[in-house]
Amino acid sequence: MDLNLFTRHDAYRWQINPRGRMRVPAVIFADEQLIREMDDKVYEQVTNVATLPGIVQASYAMPDAHWGYGFPIGGVAAFDPDEGGVVSAGGVGFDISCGVRTMTTSLAAGEVLARQQEVAIALARAIPAGVGSTGGLRLDAREMDAMLAGGARWAVAQGYGTREDLLRIEEGGRMSGAVPEEVSDHAKKRQRDEMGTLGSGNHYLEVQQVMDIYDPGAAALFGLRTGEVVISIHCGSRGLGHQIGTEFMKRMAMAASRYGIQLPDRELACAPINSPDGQAYLGAMRAAINCALANREILTHLTREAFTDLFPRAELMLLYDVSHNTCKLEEHEVEGRRRHLYIHRKGATRAFGPGHAELPEIYRDSGQPVLIGGTMGTESYILAGTAASESQAFSSACHGAGRAMSRHAALKKWRGRQLVDELAGRGILIRSPSSRGVAEEAPGAYKDVSAVVEAAHQAGLAKKVARVEPLICIKG
Amino acid sequence: MAGAGWEHFHHVADIGVRGHGATVEEAFVQAALALTAVIADPETISPTISVSVQCEAPEPDLLLVDWLNAIIYEMAVRSMLFSRFAVTISGQRLTGRAWGERVEVARHRPAVEVKGATYTALRVAEEDGRWLAQCVVDV
Q1: Contacts for A366 with CB less than 8 Å, ≥ 6 apart
Q2: Does A67 touch chain B if contact means CB atoms closer than 8 Å?
Q3: What is the pLDDT of residue A109?
Q4: Consecutive sets of 10 residues in chain A, 476 residues long: mean pLDDT of each?
């Protein structure tokens, strides 16, 4: 993007002052190179979001921002229901509550590397992944509604995962305010066979090695030690969330004019929070958050089974579970006043600082773990929320590397088999039902995750705690 | 380029599907084939089972999104892939049929699931006597 479009506040904060129908400024967090290379569409979308009714303070984009649907991926925006604020299906995205969770294993990398092939095969067998894969449980109508109301707590009650896990999941594992009745029969039918499945695209399960520790205090609280193995899972609310996103995108796009909302882009489909359409969406979206939390809990259970078969002494402890496609009601300070706001994070991670009341006791001193998924060929990062992040973008940070190249272009540039062989040469085993899927997800198709994380760290959105590198990646 | 056909077009995170043909119906059929090709090679999919689809929308472009979303839904709940399509449009109403078979990973080598058709780069229009139907799909 052209740097002349911005007022530069500091090395990592770029502002677009209100013009036209913008109600607030737009702010992008990035270093100079990231912003130069950022898609022009981010500028268009982050300023479009600034025109929506009831937006508070500013429309934000994280350092990994790229072209999304209505909102940029990496977009953060807060809305006040008492000022006509809206909730937007596009501002949450199609994969509602897509997120990352990381488990520590207490195993040394050497122990896993000695049996790397065996581990990869066992995990690929245990984790249903890719198009057409189905999970081991099929829910009837009553169980489906119980899952949508109960989230990971429902999963634990069914024997998947442990009670200790629940403390280490946002919302204690269960999003309150879910209304399963607002979830259509189509959405529920689409989920019937998909509980405990990973999905495809950029979703993965990775066995990783902790390479560097940047903040020993926080790392100790997180249970991270250099040279040990952790496991991360990236996936979301599967078909149910996709269907809810699709249905409400249309419903809100058609209803917007009825509420007197002028949409600069149909993908910004939204409805006032205090309206029947807004409330219906919130009820359904929260049910989808529970679906994602339950799904990741089941996948955690399957991972533990596979791992402890091979390493009976391994104890897979959940470090934390974050969702990066959500809209949540939170309390934030704006110009010295505490306000209850609906925070949209589309491809952005919540990053509450130390002492925040919503953090579990164990992380009160460190701040919230912020899990940043990189690519299968590079690295991922674990960060922590800081006190400063509250004043930056409503305690939000980046969510991943962010794509730099289209799937179409990636497919022309790389061959899946060749990538798998290349990565194997570097000690990284990839297991995927689709070699084309691997090519589309080539590490080179993403931005440099280290640059994204460094920008988030320097901008004060979150602080770096640890860096991990992949050993095994199960791709959908 | 004469006749009907389909292609994919660029979107940084996802993928665009575009169909064209002599009629709007033909363009919709081709867009559905482009959608299938995001997931697998249509040539590998045998059109043995048929599924009927109906949708309704006030604008032709919204009807395209509904049509593609209806196909995405049928693929998901039936674990099927489709390689042949037929479409009739009457006013705001679309009646369609899709022929295909159940997914077989070893034979179809499906690359990616499609989450939904979107309003991004959405266009249904007649240009120089030929119809175009396109949008970006989220994968």
Answers
A1: A217, A218, A221, A222, A354, A384, A465
A2: yes
A3: 97
A4: 94 97 98 94 97 98 94 97 97 95 97 97 94 87 97 98 97 98 97 92 95 98 98 96 95 94 93 98 98 98 96 96 98 94 98 96 96 94 95 96 86 92 96 89 93 97 98 93
Neighbours of A198 (CB within 10 A): 26
Q: Among A239, A265, A409, whose Cβ lies nearest the Cβ of B76?
A: A239
What backbone phi and psi angles, to 5 degrees, belong to A64?
-95, 15
* Number of C-beta neighbours around residue A413 at 10 A: 12
Q: Which residue has the tokens 């937006």?
A: A55
Catalytic residues of A, which ones? 399
Residue A434: the pLDDT is 85
* Closest residue in B to A237 (Cα–Cα): B115
Instruction: Return d(Cα A253, Cα A244) in angstroms, integer.
Output: 14
Angle at A404 between CA A78 and CA A457, to 5 degrees: 55
- Give B35's contacts (C-beta < 8 A, 6+ positions apart): B17, B68, B71, B72, B114, B117, B137
Do residues B99 and B53 lie in contact, with contact meaning Cβ atoms separated by under 8 Å? no
Q: What is the pLDDT of residue A201?
A: 85
Residue-level pLDDT at A465: 98
- Dig out the tokens for A463 from the structure: 């602080």
CB contacts of B73 in chain A (<8 Å) are: 186, 190, 243
* CB-based contacts of B104, cutoff 8 Å, min separation 6: none
Q: Which residue has the tokens 């990538």?
A: A419
pTM confidence score? 0.96
Nearest to B137 by CA among B30, B5, B9: B9
> Does the structure show a pLDDT above 80 at B2?
no
Residue of B nearest to A202 (CA): B139
